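Fill in residues.
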């Protein structure tokens, strides 16, 4: 497909499958990066310690991009500082890997919450 100019930004897999995806892509002679959905995807309701370890393990196994799920309860209860702090920890756990934040905007209750969560994700996700 590459010779036809067709490619993709990344192959996205669950954290436990990162190593398999990296190996399979290398074996196929493909240089497409591996991304991983982490932090208890899709709900994001696991313990923070577990979510951080999931990020670290995915990066250690070869993921160059981490897609994190925010804890939507923090948004729905107005715990904005806690949301910021959590995303900062995700950013740190990613190291050099690219961080993307999944907001699940349809579950945030209002456009104001979507706006606030978006702004916090952008501020907290900076290197």
């Amino acid at each position: 497909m590459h010779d036809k100019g067709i490619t993709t930004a990344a192959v996205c897999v669950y954290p436990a499958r990162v190593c398999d995806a990296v190996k399979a892509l290398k074996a196929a002679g493909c240089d497409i990066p591996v991304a991983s959905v982490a932090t208890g995807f899709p709900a994001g309701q696991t313990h923070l310690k577990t979510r951080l370890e999931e990020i670290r393990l995915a990066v250690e196994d070869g993921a160059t991009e981490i897609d994190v799920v925010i804890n939507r309860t923090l948004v729905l209860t107005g715990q904005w500082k806690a949301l910021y702090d959590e995303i900062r920890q995700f950013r740190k756990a990613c190291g050099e890997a690219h961080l993307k934040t999944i907001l699940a905007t349809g579950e945030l209750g209002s456009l104001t919450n979507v706006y606030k969560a978006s702004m916090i994700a952008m501020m907290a996700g900076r290197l």
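The two ends are 34 Å apart (CA to CA).
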